[in-house]
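Note to self: keep these together.
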Amino acid sequence: MKSFIGLHQVVSADDYIELALGAPVELWLGVEGESELERAAREDAARDILADHPHLVDDVSRIAAEAIEAFAPTLGNVAPLARATTRHGRASRAVAA
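Structure:
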């Protein structure tokens, strides 16, 4: 089943976030290995977006809280990992006659 928001096809969770924010996720989180110049430019662009949309942080926080609340029952639905067993005592060795 395909999912669309407006004319945009959504294929991943990042697509939903990008369409909700109106900017790529990397703008807010950065990318691995970015230079100081790239980081400064990215942060400057983010500041411009926040200046144009002062309620964006509150809206995103509210949406995230609602999503966590909606999925809270399944977030804690985890299975414990099996504990590693260790042997205490001497290792048995076969003795050749």
